[in-house]
Write a structure and sequence with these properties.
Length: about 300
């Protein structure tokens, strides 16, 4: 079995969830603030990224973080290009932890039009995908946001996501399609229904040999995405916490059979730069265990 085949089998069959460690430039200050590091701690972007890499390294190297409960981790490009203990981050994850490395590739969101925020253009996408392959990344993740139940806007989101997915698949990587429905959407159930219909339509057009993943907002209806969970071309359906607290996100996730977590803020909730090693590991362990249990129901 090749490394890629082993990584695919890990995501497909191993119990666990995906750790989202992919805060990018715009969301990094908030992530550091929640971790107990204020903006006064850095004066340059380089220093900010150094600090967030230290945070991510501490999480990844923790005894609580490993293959027993985590199947994959999503990385920010800057994290992919760095190392842990002298080893490329993706290689450290896979070789030391047996956790599959995935790369966030989107460059943020465009201004809202027709009730949605499409992804900004991704300059140098081909070169980024080439580097991802060289660095032993298994797949990619890209996020857009649905704010309103606007049929035209939702179709535009799905069209854009699948257009990028085709280019990613051509390079041999597995795309995670993430059309997030904002949890504050005033017509959330209706938006989710429109999104599901659009995804089913585009999934039906996907060549039979292609395989993708979906990362979706925790829905209002239990087992709403079961058709995707059972679909032969969907490797895995994962859920984002989307602003819900970890407790609420876990409770909602536990009612979605076959869907696993891909939480970011909910995963790191309660962690602090000021914690001792023992307190940090204990807090992270409790977080991972709660998300794991919600993911295997």
């Amino acid at each position: 079995m090749t490394t890629r085949e082993e990584q695919r089998a890990t995501i497909k069959s191993r119990p666990g969830f995906i750790a989202a460690l992919d805060q990018s430039g715009g969301s990094t200050p908030k992530a550091l603030s929640l971790y107990g590091i204020t903006e006064s701690a850095w004066s340059t972007e380089q220093q900010m990224f150094d600090l967030v890499h230290e945070m991510r390294t501490r999480i990844i190297k923790s005894s609580a973080f490993g293959s027993a409960r985590i199947v994959a981790a999503i990385l920010f490009e800057n994290t992919m290009d760095r190392s842990i203990d002298g080893e490329a981050t993706a290689d450290f994850l896979w070789r030391r932890k047996k956790v599959v490395p995935i790369l966030k590739i989107d460059q943020g969101l465009a201004a809202q039009v027709d009730g949605v925020e499409l992804m900004k253009p991704i300059p140098g996408l081909f070169e980024l995908l080439e580097r991802a392959v060289e660095k032993n990344i298994f797949g990619t993740k890209m996020r857009s946001v649905i704010k309103l139940a606007d049929p035209g806007g939702i179709e535009a989101v799905v069209d854009q996501q699948f257009e990028f997915a085709e280019r990613i698949l051509e390079r041999g990587l597995c795309p995670i399609i993430e059309p997030e429905v904002d949890i504050k959407c005033p017509e959330k159930s209706q938006a989710e229904q429109l999104l599901k219909e659009a995804l089913i339509d585009r999934l039906g057009q996907l060549p039979k040999e292609r395989e993708i993943m979906f990362k979706l907002t925790l829905p209002e209806v239990d087992n709403f995405y079961i058709d995707f969970v059972l679909h032969p071309q969907v490797l895995k359906v994962v859920a984002l916490s989307g602003g819900y607290s970890r407790t609420v996100a876990n409770e909602r996730l536990s009612r979605q059979k076959g869907v696993i977590a891909s939480f970011s803020r909910a995963l790191t909730e309660g962690l602090s730069a000021q914690q001792t090693a023992a307190d940090f590991d204990q807090t992270l362990d409790a977080s991972i265990q709660s998300i794991y249990l919600a993911s295997i129901t």
